[in-house]
Amino acid sequence: MSAIPGKIKGCGVENPVSVTSVAGIPLSRAATMDCNTAITLHNWVEKGVKPAVGRLGGGVARIDVISGYSCRTRNNQKGKRISEHGKGKAVDISGITLANGVSISVLKGWNSKAQGKLLRAMHQSACGPFGTVLGPSANSFHRDHFHFDTAKYRSGSYCK
């Protein structure tokens, strides 16, 4: 894709890509991000999602994405710093859909016995490859999705 100029100071992506599938699994919607974030997402799907799900329900058929690039502040809060979404370094995942049609959603499954363990394994496997990993335990803004971004921190990944 062509470079995306920011509408707000600090936003924009120099070398964006539009991702429609990852590791052979379609996304529910195209997500725009930088190449590093796309590669990190691919690695997470291969090393975290696919092993966690295995053959359950016939395997992963779709990854449910709710956001990629979006020029905005953190949590859309006025006066906050620019979100990593505004830099093309973040993606929000609301769940996965299995081949048998069963949906595993972060909102409904996080605290369930059946799906909670699987969602927690996927969340944990993102910690390290991604710089920031947020989910329902982080705050109310993330109760219905995982936020993954490739921000770099001196102390390592921030995961909650």
Automatic annotation (TrEMBL):
This protein's name: Extensin family protein
SUPFAM superfamilies: Hedgehog/DD-peptidase
InterPro entries recorded: Extensin-like_C, Zn_M74/Hedgehog-like
Lineage: Bacteria, Pseudomonadati, Pseudomonadota, Alphaproteobacteria, Rhodobacterales
Domain named Extensin-like C-terminal: residues: 9-160
Residue ranges of coiled coil: none
Pfam families associated with the record: Extensin-like_C
Domain of life: Bacteria
Organism from which the protein derives: Falsihalocynthiibacter arcticus
